Amino acid sequence: MPDKAETLNELKDKAAIAGSKQVLVGMDGFVDIIVHPVDQRYGPGDQFHPIPTISDFAKRIASAAGKSANIELAPVVEKLGGNGPIMANAQLAQGLKVRYLGALGQEMIHPVFQEFAAKTEALSIADPGVTHAAEFNDGKIMLGSMASLDEITYARLCDLPGEAKLIEICDKADLIAMVNWTMVPYQTDVYNSLLEKVLPRCSTDKKRCFFFDLADPEKRSDEDIREVLSIFTKFSAFGEVILGLNLREAEKIDSLLGFDPLENTPENLQVMASRIREMLALDTVVVHPVTGAACATREGSAYVAGPYCEKPKITTGAGDHFNAGFSNARLLGLSPTVSLTVAVATSGYYVRTAESPSLEDIAEFIASW
Asked: Which of 35, 53, 188, 305 could bond to 292 as cystine, CB 3.0-4.6 Å?
């Protein structure tokens, strides 16, 4: 972590301009049902011991091979979900002006999104997917139903809100964040259409920033991944490009680019971020494992250890909060190291409280870290 006083001073100096920044976020949307798989129940309601780890869960499932099993998923909360809405909510909490474009309901906005849609003047073009997020001490398993996301196409965007409106919205944005590429089947086509039909018609009088997140691309083919990575590079013609990756995603991309695997150390994370950035000719690549984060920019690389939480209140959405914190900080003009600190603090605050922090909350969290 950089010098604490230096970090807080830099954050204080830049926080005042947050309200002048306009962000466009898209394009997914999920109703998240957070569940805890039950190991042993000893009474009604929350009177049970959850299955503690993903490995234990895997053993429980494996033991049913050739037989059968009934595993209870105890609901914890139903809330808005999806990489885009969670990231956008975190950006709202930090004082930015946010516009949302995505899958919040086709005929009508789903109840979990109604307050969010009002705050973000949301334009919804499809029904949301549904995810049962099984949380464990060492991670989470997301079980999703997402056929409705097939409706997210450029043609649909041209029907509602319309191409002219889409150009207007993009033109106003200081940051355009397009996330969850993996689960939106036609998002590569949308990216190409933005490059060909929208961005060339936007004004060039502002320094625009683009943020991309793949969202666990394991189920997509190597060819699909290589194609979208080449498209990210093309966005550099219209502004600064940031690619956000968790550790698993970074290792996958690193391997696809032909590099040998590296042990997970702070130094190696910076090497990985740097060589991915250089190979793809991007402005910034940020890699965030659970215990810290590294980034590489044109000026060099940095690493910050995170405020690891052994018993988080919530983990679903932690990565999206990290992405919001990092992209917000870079948009405000904070240095790479301070941006990493804001990002891990945003995520760290969220997993402890299940609430999205304001910049003031972040400053207090960093001060007491």
From this structure: 305
C-alpha span between 192 and 186 (Å, rounded) = 10
Structural domain including 298 reads 4-31+81-130+145-368
CATH number of the domain at 189, please. 3.40.1190.20
| Cβ burial, residue 26 (10 Å; 0-12/13-18/19+) | buried
- Helices and strands of the chain, counted as H and E runs: 13, 14
- Tell me the whole-structure pTM to 2 decimals: 0.90
- What one-letter code names the amino acid at 197? K
What CA–CA distance (Å, rounded) separates 149 from 28?
A: 7
pLDDT along the chain (369 residues), means of 10: 83 94 97 94 96 97 95 92 96 98 95 97 96 89 92 94 95 97 96 98 93 94 97 97 97 97 96 98 96 96 93 88 98 96 97 96 95
In whole angstroms, give the CA distance from residue 306 to residue 321.
13
List the structure tokens of 126.
């499809």
